[in-house]
Known about the structure:
Layout: H1 4-15, H2 17-43, H3 50-71, H4 73-76, H5 81-85, H6 89-93, H7 99-128, H8 136-163, H9 167-196, H10 202-210, H11 213-220, H12 234-261
Amino acid sequence: MLNPLLIEELRTLTRSGRIYAIGVTLIITLSALTFGLIWDASTTERILGPEYGKGMFLVFFVVLILAICLIFPAFTAGAISSEQERMTFDLLRITLLRPHQYLVGKIGSVLVCISTLLFASLPVAILMLPLGGISTTELIHCYLVTFIPAIAFSLSGLMWSSVFRNTRTSTGVTYAFAGFFIFGTGIVPMILKEAFREKLNQVVLDLCVSLNPFYATASILGRTKAIQVSGLSPQSITIAGYLVISLITACIAMLRFKRMRG
């Protein structure tokens, strides 16, 4: 039997014009950016070769990561706290839904939307493949580095929504959490390295940098030096790290929801 909450959440999202507006805006932005870069190369007599192709893919995925990872946590950041604010949480208490079913219902609709937008962006990425510089396998890796962190940040929104009763607070903390991993993992290690010099373990700093989705994407495309940690590539660490974060945040959200139900 299908999860009734998942069906209801999907109906609510599809009936709302917000998700369509986000999707259309994102695809138009990516398309305009891609054709703008091609036009710039043709007017400035740059060589449209593999190196330029790698740069185009890097810009493409930076925009995609920012959009996916910063938009969709807002859909889950108020999933539980908004129920408390509207005083409808008591209705959830008397349902037969178990905590994991509630989690799947709330996060499942968001993951469907994320997957749909990523698939919608694929034709734009395929148009750049003839330029060279990236293989199909590397393209898949770039999409995984975009998709897995988006899952983790969306689940973190659900977790913080179960911790705080106020939606504004949970949304703010969710974006602070996501902002640290998107931007802080690239900035903080550089600051700590300069501040403490040789006192910090380099492996810890390398692991922190490898959790940055921008760095992982750049390393896949060969636009930066790939740091190997225990023989693992940056994209492997990124994917594994965010899967662990997803598991931890999902477990905390389920435990909090179970405790709130009493």
